[in-house]
Amino acid sequence: MQVNSSNGSLQQRIFSGTGSIGGVHLPDFNDRYVFSKKKSGISDEEYRKQIVAQAYKDFEKGTFQNKSDGFNKLMKNYTSEVSPDRKGIITSGLKAVSRNRHNVLKPIDFVATLLEGKVKYQKLPSGNSEYIEFYDKNGEMVATYSNNGWTMYTTNAEAARQTEMCMIYNEAWGNAKRGLPIVGGESVNEENLKSSFDVKA
Q: What's the predicted TM-score (pTM) here?
């Protein structure tokens, strides 16, 4: 996969014009790399067909993976099915920090338990900067805020889902490159193509 990531996290980014809570700008939850829980009701089988179709479209256009807007949109939808509620964790976490930051007298972690996870807040000795960590209910870090920027961390479930999508996509893209057709929403490899002809004969 060709996502801007290292060690399962996205690079720190500064978002503007997204609103703020307690003076902290929110991330852009519509950004293609900011995943948050969203159940679409689409089955994995239907997603598989969409991924295969997208790979064939991208091959025709000469694009691959995240160079394609269609791929990025599909990746966001596909991954968000298993994502934690990042939006809820971050917004409720910032509200908790905002309510309690006045009570923090020294640079120690402030931990607030939330419905979907927890937040750790630290005011750094300089007095100007803050460091906030956001965790989901499984204890996995999902985001950090520092130096006025956000870093989103991929959970294990999200990483597995992204890998799965890339494997389906890469196989289909390779089949498109070899000129193999899509049959019933699936790209077929040479063995399946031969057996489908044998069945019809």
A: 0.78
